[in-house]
Amino acid sequence: MSSLKRSGGRAARFALALIPEHLGGSMSLAMCSSQQGARSFMAPMCLVTHDDWTAITVGTPNGEGAEAMALIDDVDGLQSIYINRATGNGNDDDERDYPLYRQSVLDDPRVTSLVPGWVRRHRNLDQFWGFIQPKFPKYAERRKFIWDEFRLLVDFAESAGGHPSDIVVSEALDRIDAEHVRIAWTKALERRSTDPEGAITMARTLLESVCKHILDEAGASDHETTPDLNRLYKQTATLLNLTKAQHEEVVFKQILGGCTAVIEGLGALRNRLSDAHGKGKGGVKAAPRHAELAVNLAGSTALFLLATWEAKNGD
Length: 315
Description:
Oligomer: single chain
Distance between the termini: 54 Å
Number of strands: 7
Helix content: 55-70%
Strand content: 5-15%
Radius of gyration: 25 Å
Number of helices: 11
Largest sheet: 3 strands, antiparallel
Structural class: mainly alpha
């Protein structure tokens, strides 16, 4: 049994199994479960064969997958520590790990607006106990309060784990000097599961902000009088040589025409499903899948526009 520790998380223990070759070791592949706090996850393995034995070593993911898993681990670990302390089940491990989990979550810019205020205020578990103990007399009430307070944070952490493209777009937006663009993207992600109508509104706002950012950088000053997204995109696409009329090849015309259709579709989706306009009695209610579509399309389009602008500037 070996122990691994990563910054900001608890020790993760992984088993090392040796399977005799004559028992089918080289053919046996079974995922090994690792327990971290209250969460079990499946870790990838690799086989190393030596003579008559096959060693199964367990590793951890890297890159975007590791970052997403780390956030889920940190959020779940922090929530578990709070529940343990609030219900009389705290232990020395919790005392040791609390500052690591707490700081790791507070340092993640993706979840800044989702962290409950009392997490920031209470730097140690004694301070947290002084807050939770008089607030709720019963354990069940304390558990429910913590779960409710962490719900948005947990939803985002689990969503980030399933949407590696979110990280790609976030990293691209971090490179530009436009806080309003990053805020629009962050709000779109935050609302995708919990407030679909708001997420659709922010998806359109993201594209408007990206188009205006590019036009500002290019020195175009007349866009402020152009609130219509379709016109903003046409102006931006013309600047970036991304309109159908600027290309002769059929395949490019098809792709760029598809980009225009996405913009027009997002505008129509926003008008029909978002919270930007009042609705009649028979209005259609946006579902998370609609928000998922709008945010993902907006993120991909924004990424393409910014990448094209960077390439144009690099020429």
